Amino acid sequence: MIAELGHLALILALALTLVRDGRMTQDALLATMTANPARIFGLPAGRIAPGQPADLMLFDAGAPWRIDADATLASAGNTPFDGMPTQGRVALTMKGGETVWRRA
Questions:
Q1: I want to staple 38 with a disulfide (CB 3.0 to 4.6 A). Which of 43, 54, 99, 102 is the partner?
Q2: Are strands 98-102 and 85-95 parallel, antiparallel or unpaired?
Q3: Considering the domain boundaries, does residue 1 fall inside one?
């Protein structure tokens, strides 16, 4: 199992601020975090398609929560965002078509 709040979940929540502030569309943000890096590095990833491995995060863009450094195992509890209220919470993470984390 992976930590509830890994690096990508934290980055997603913080990046969704750009969407809420009208500085970026949600589609552009998600492409920036998925398909664009895969394309740049020539990886067969970053998109959902038949026959491709399902590496994805299901999230609720409006779900509020507060960043808790102690619950952030991926960064060893060290983040300048500790205590910051944010929105955008991951509900499910899949890697290679297998569910590796699900919010209880």
A1: 43
A2: antiparallel
A3: no
* pTM for the structure as a whole: 0.79
Mean per-residue pLDDT over the chain, rounded:
86
Look at residue 26 and tell me if it is in a domain. yes
What's the token pair of residue 11?
């980055």
3-state secondary structure the chain: CCCCCCHHHHHHHHHHHHHHCCCCCHHHHHHHHCHHHHHHCCCCCCCCCCCCCCCEEEEEEEEEEECCHHHCHHHCCCCCCCCCEEEEEEEEEEECCEEEEECC
User: Can you tell me the distance from the alpha carbon of 1 to that of 36, in angstroms, rounded to the nearest whole number?
Assistant: 27
Residue 2 falls inside a structural domain? no
Domain count, the chain: 1
